[in-house]
Specification:
The chain has 249 residues and is mostly beta strands. It contains one helix and 17 strands. The chain folds into two domains: 51-125, SH3 type barrels (Roll); 126-248, Beta Barrel (L,D-transpeptidase catalytic domain-like), CATH 2.40.440. The strands form four sheets. It has an eight-stranded mixed sheet. Strands 6-5-4-1-7 form a five-stranded antiparallel sheet, with no helix packed on it. A hairpin with a 2-residue loop joins strand 9 (137-142) and strand 10.
């Protein structure tokens, strides 16, 4: 699947996340092709079919979401591209004929719906991200190969990072790589459980770099996941959108 670094002009950040106490910077975004990213690392074990994730990317300007494969009208419609300029993507949970059940990047967390296969393009990859809150650790893998494992900063007791299964829906680049978000920030499909909005946005949870490495390994954020700038840069140059993110206690 093509890897997207979302760097299309964007004045107001939709990833106004539960990310930290520092003032929220303006991010710029614009999609570019995989050919401009670094090559994938060589893996020793190819992902099996059971380990592959299927990603549905919107093929047109909008995608209708239905309650079931037998529904005649959509309950909601999502625009493509997203407000950030990133393509609209979904993580596929199951297929039923010409229908796909997908995770949705909407509240409440864990929401799913059905989309028509004719409205999306399907790709597969073997990447996964595991977040262990208690251990303050992120592990990124492709099949059986670990790509990155390192300490992270997570939400505080008052503004915890929500557990569950999400996926990376967009990749953003702050204007200052030495700022509080680091050089890159992923927006996830999940939201803060305690902040209905944050800094003018919807409280989207993200994974991003940091200008304060002392916060790694600690409960420091409003819900976002902070990692090293070197680590987030490696992920931005390696991962597609639609990577499953499992957040465990």
């Amino acid at each position: 699947m093509p890897r997207f670094t979302v760097l299309a002009a964007w004045a107001l950040v939709v990833l106004a996340t539960a990310c930290g106490s520092s003032p929220r910077p303006t991010l710029t975004a614009h999609p570019h092709a995989a050919s401009t990213t670094t090559a994938l690392p060589t893996t020793t074990t190819a992902p099996s079919r059971a380990q592959l994730s299927t990603v549905a990317q919107a093929a047109g300007p909008r995608v209708g979401v239905y309650d079931s494969p037998t529904a005649t009208t959509p309950t909601r419609t999502l625009a493509n591209p997203q407000p950030s300029g990133a393509p609209l993507v979904f993580l596929v949970r199951e297929t039923h004929g010409d229908w796909l059940q997908v995770l949705l990047p909407v509240r409440p967390n864990g929401s799913s719906g059905w989309v028509k296969a004719t409205e999306v393009r399907l790709t597969q990859h073997g990447f996964r991200i595991l977040i262990e809150l208690g251990a303050h650790r992120i592990t990124v893998s492709e099949g059986a190969t670990v790509i990155d494992e390192e300490p992270i900063g997570v939400g505080t007791t008052d503004t915890p990072t929500p557990g569950g299964l999400y996926y990376t829906k967009e990749l953003l680049q702050p204007p200052d790589p030495n700022g509080p978000y680091g050089p890159y920030a992923y927006g996830l499909s999940g939201f803060s459980d305690v902040l209905p909005n944050f800094a003018g946005g919807e409280g989207v949870i993200g994974i991003h770099g940091t200008n304060d490495p002392s916060g790694l390994g600690r409960d420091v954020s409003h819900g976002c996941i902070r990692m090293s700038n070197a680590g987030i840069t490696k992920l931005a140059h390696t991962l597609p959108l639609g990577v499953p993110v499992e957040i465990r206690p």
